[in-house]
Amino acid sequence: MSTVPTATISRLVTYLRILTQLEAQGIKKTSSEHLADEAQVSAFQVRKDLAYFGRFGTRGAGYTVPTLRRELRRILGLTRSWSAAIVGMGRLGEAIAHYPNFGAYDFLLKGAFDIDPHKVGREVAGLTVQHVDELPRVVREKGIDIGFITVPHEAAQDAADALVRAGVKGILNFAPTVIDVPKEIHVEPVDFLAGLKRLSFYILNPQLREEVA
């Protein structure tokens, strides 16, 4: 398989959401045009994105909704459960821990960590907050795959280092800073302030909105 653009993976997530809604409505068939309209891209873009992974539709007949949804779940790795842990149990960490829909998508929150003695030992969303020093043991015993970093930016690199040493292979980084990890570790940044800044730019400069890649 050739290298798949990050933007394509993001759009696959959007297509999956649309297909899930269609299936819930009892709709059995759809088209690239309909997916494109709902995702606000072109039909050509939809077909191009899907073509990275094979052929899923029939010319003139479109896509079978349950089949394409199942294939996208497989491609995105959503046919198995993923275990996650949070490092940083301040307000953001607690808010994420209380998010009600992890289980609906087979993401299981199995650990909560901090270094603050006032937070360690507390109960949050059914989990006991543990010291970061316990990460390696908990990751090993509970098979944790993903780490959420929700610490202040100045502590993010230490949190990332701890997750990497513990054996976590993927990190969702909510701290507004870039972290340095080995190349085999994938990091997804979640920076809502950066999003707000981009939003303000495009509101002021709508003519400069970039075309979908």
TrEMBL record:
Organism superkingdom: Bacteria
CoA-binding domain segment(s): 77-178
Keyword Cytoplasm: yes
UniProt keyword Transcription, yes or no: yes
InterPro entries attached to this UniProt entry: CoA-bd, NAD(P)-bd_dom_sf, Rex_actinobacterial-type, Rex_DNA-bd_C_dom, Tscrpt_rep_Rex, WH-like_DNA-bd_sf, WH_DNA-bd_sf
DNA-binding region(s) in UniProt: 14-53
Positions bound to NAD(+): 88-93
Signal peptide segment: none
Pfam families noted in UniProt: CoA_binding (PF02629), Put_DNA-bind_N (PF06971)
GO biological process, one term: response to redox state
Keywords: Cytoplasm, DNA-binding, NAD, Repressor, Transcription, Transcription regulation
HAMAP family (UniProt xref): Rex
Record PANTHER family: REDOX-SENSING TRANSCRIPTIONAL REPRESSOR REX, REDOX-SENSING TRANSCRIPTIONAL REPRESSOR REX 1
Protein name from the UniProt record: Redox-sensing transcriptional repressor Rex
Protein source organism: Truepera radiovictrix (strain DSM 17093 / CIP 108686 / LMG 22925 / RQ-24)
